[in-house]
Amino acid sequence: MHIIRWNLASLSKEEKEAAENPWRELERERAQLGKKCMGDNVEREAESCQETLSKVLDAKAKKIRICTRSKRWWNSEIKESRSALGRGKRRGRRSEAAARAKAELQKSIRESKSWMGYDYVQNLKGGEVWRVSKLTNP
Question: How confident is the model over 48-73, as a mean pLDDT?
Answer without folding.
Answer: 77
